[in-house]
Amino acid sequence: MRDISGKPSTHRTARAEALLRARPETIERVRNGSVPKGNVLEAARAAGLLAAKRTPELIPLCHPIPLTHVEVAFEIRPEAIAVTASVSAVWATGVEMEALTAATVAALTLYDMLKPLDDDLEIVHVRLLEKRGGASDRGEAPKRPIRAAVVVISDSVAAGRRKDASGAAIVEILGAHGVAASAPESIPDDQEVIDRTLRRLCDEGACDLVLTTGGTGLGPRDVTVEATRAVIEREAPGIAEAARGFGQAREPKAMFSRGIAGIRGRTLIVNLPGSPKGVRESLAALLPALLHAAAMIAGGGHPE
């Protein structure tokens, strides 16, 4: 199975359809409830509901998903019965296989119950109609390139005693989302230097997004948060809360991160943890929605 522990849980939905072709007289018997085996639609509905919930038992690489809703509906046509299965969950992976399985098993149940009456039964197709949720729905792509800067705040990195890994990870992840950031700028854990650097990047650097890494913990030299709070004009607490909540579910020490996020002028500043792991987890929670927020602050407006 694919490891999805690094993905955020989002609201996922999917709709699938299976089409069973039958003779018109068979369709009429379904319509008037005269099938010898009983109410074929209700039996098929129950089978589809059970199938959605048991999908990981049937398909080896499917993850067990706590489904929040499953619905199986039917449309009786002159020469066919269309089965539509709708599934939803709040989880880290999609539910299209659950919807496809529900529609398929419901159609197979119809086939089983109608086969004594009709030798021409045929499941014509099983197809996915729609799926939503996940990264593709977490913020519209910016209409223009996002200008980003990365600041590594660490005494040891600034002094050359330790090689930067966190800033490089940020640049790599931004690049994967289509944002070209310049090489990370390394500065010491000094509140005045941090303050001055952030003001320069916001006021003179024409940056839409500034991501800092380091100095967000509980140590005596961890002053990134204090410097950032002095620079920003409006705080955006939900950003830091989302990153901390995602990290806390994977690493108990995430509770020690005091990072904040806020706006100065038309620039969004976000404090990220100092470790590469903390950076990757935080950005997994925040991207790509963070890019939409930066574009909106820069004057892009809300999507229609």
Give the C-alpha Rg. Answer: 27 Å
| Discrete helix count | 11
Order of helices and strands: EHHHEEHEEHHEHEHEHEEHH
Uncertain residue segments: none
Name the CATH superfamily assignment of the largest domain: MoaB/Mog-like domain
Q: Compute the average pLDDT.
A: 92
* Percent helix: 25-40%
Q: If strands are numbered along the chain, what order do they take across the biggest sheet?
A: 6-5-7-10-9-8
Name the beta content range. 15-25%
Shape: elongated
What would you call the structural class?
A: alpha/beta
CATH C-level of the largest domain: Alpha Beta
What's the domain count?
Answer: 2
CATH architecture of the largest domain: 3-Layer(aba) Sandwich
Major beta-sheet overview: 6 strands, mixed
- Taking the alpha carbons of the first and last residues, their distance comes to 38 Å
Q: How many E strands? A: 10
CATH topology of the largest domain: Molybdenum Cofactor Biosythetic Enzyme, Chain A
Helix and strand arrangement:
Blueprint: E1 10-21, H1 24-32, H2 40-53, H3 55-58, E2 67-77, E3 80-91, H4 96-114, E4 122-132, E5 148-153, H5 155-158, H6 166-176, E6 185-187, H7 191-203, E7 209-213, H8 224-231, E8 234-235, H9 237-248, E9 261-264, E10 267-272, H10 276-286, H11 289-300
Parallel strand pairs: 5-6, 5-7, 7-10
Antiparallel strand pairs: 1-3, 1-4, 2-3, 8-9, 9-10
Features:
alpha/beta; Molybdenum Cofactor Biosythetic Enzyme, Chain A; 304 residues; four-stranded antiparallel β-sheet
